[in-house]
Amino acid sequence: MAILGNIIKGIIHLTDTLSSETNHIEAQKKVLKDLLETAKETQFGTHYHFKDILLSKNIEQTFSQKIPYFDYHSLHKKWWHKIHKGEENVTWVGSPSYFALSSGTTGKTSKKIPVTDAMINAIKSSGIKQVTSLNNFDLPVNFFEKDIMMLGSSTDLSEEENHLEGEISGISASNIPFWFKGYYKPGEEIAKIKDWDERVQHIAENAENWDIGALSGIPAWIELMIQKVIEFHNLKHIHEIWPNLEVYTSGGVAFKPYEKSFKALLGKPVTVIDTYLASEGYIATQVRPDTDAMQLNTENGIYFEFVPMHPDYINEDGSIKQNAPSLTLEQVEKNTDYILIISTVSGAWRYLIGDTIAFTDVAKAEIKITGRTKFFLNTVGSQLSVNKMDDAINHLEEEFSTKIKEYTICAKRFEDGEFYHSWYLGAEIKENNNQIAEALDAFLKKANKNYKVARTKALKGVKVTVIPVQKFHEWNAYNKKKGGQVKMERVMNEKKFSDWENFVNEI
Question: Measured between alpha carbons, how far is 54 from 59 in angstroms, rounded to an integer?
Fold first, then answer.
């Protein structure tokens, strides 16, 4: 079979060689023009005069001036609700074949995000880009013969009138190319199992029959799956049963907070490749080994805009203010936090996806996810972003020689009338909560000047509660969000935090 591996690697190398270096700025201009041209006769395109925008001297500038920002709730209220009533050509031509169910990080009610055939094709094109970029990584020839474990949501999609519904990972897996099915694990039968725990049990039972070379999925749930396989087969680490595991493709959230606990499950190092697949589209993928940043998929059905991350531009609920300025890819700067805005072939227009990013290389259009707009903690002026929180967690892991797999935080007013940052950590730490709180507070004062100022004013202090990480998993299951594209709430408001604390304290 080494011959097959050489053939596959050769094809990937040839494809990569023949593809010219992308001019990302020009690619984005073309994507926006194609989006407007395709959707100009839709209800949305007619209402916002797409034909006039296409005739303007600066299409990007006119587009940003004429079209308001939307988030899911505002776009659904004004436009997408019509699709569910059977109307066609609403924000995109025709009707979507799928709806991606996404509860994100808030509440039990699923959002229903349109996924058109054009988006499926865009996701496939971005997937091909990811596969061809493997040529840039130092992988053995036999890797290209091994199975790939994709752990997402169920591929057993629900039929609803003239469309199918499911999470985006399930929709994507149900549309994998025919030539890939021989490599795809856990296979179609197991992948259709809706109950996540039952599906993972079947994976554990069948693990010894597969020769897994790559894993793909959300870090928290990949870890739980690996732990289940290790426990079921009484192993020391996952490489005892999958010795040829070489690659882990992460996605959905930043991998760094999970790095230490993930590596503890391995028998040898693996290549970690970050990807960014959201319910709204395939945003970015890592294409080279000398960085952990991801390259925006600038050619495949998504037009990107970037709003500078600043408290003045964000409403209390995490939505964006209409007067917030937006920048094109041509205007952004390196190492600056931006709120990500997308317009897509699924009919999302100037859409707040909810994530914040920073560019590590503007020319290569490479980014890192830095947080969520709803996870930006500024209740008492601390201006604490998720990347700063993650840095603090990494510091605690080093300071106390531990692994902190999950955490959440709230700026909460306590009985003394003062505001404290109340942290819950999913870990096993022998030191008491006060010692951990002091270390956390000291690090954030040093790392964030706004936090340091807030600590001299309205922010009284830090409180820490260490709990078993299992409580976080149970919370997600309670909120019907176990497995799939789950992202744990890093920041909660006081009402949600009260529900969380009640849940944690239940016997």
Answer: 6
Return the closest-CA partner of residue 451 out of 421, 478, 415. Answer: 421
Residue 157 DSSP class = P
Inform me whether the pLDDT recorded for 194 exceeds 60. yes
Q: Does residue 178 surpass a pLDDT of 80?
A: no
Q: Where are the alpha helices (DSSP H) in 40-187?
A: 43-47, 50-55, 59-66, 72-75, 81-84, 117-133, 168-173
pLDDT at 2: 41
pLDDT confidence of residue 105: 44
Distance, in Å, from the CA atom of 402 to the CA atom of 405, rounded to the nearest integer, reads 10
Other beta carbons within 10 Å of 431: 15
Q: Could you give the CA distance from residue 157 to residue 167 in angstroms, rounded to a whole number?
A: 8
* Residue 170 binned pLDDT confidence (cut-offs 50, 70, 90): confident
Hey, which bits of 298-365 come out as E strands?
Answer: 302-308, 337-344, 351-361
> How high is the pLDDT of residue 142?
84
Q: What pLDDT was estimated at residue 60?
A: 96
Closest CA to 115 of 166, 155, 158, 77: 166
To 5 degrees, how large is the angle CA 467–CA 420–CA 389? Answer: 60
Length reported for the chain: 507
Domain annotation for the chain: domains and CATH numbers: 377-504 (3.30.300)
pLDDT at position 252 is 65
Say which residue the tokens 């890592």 belong to.
286
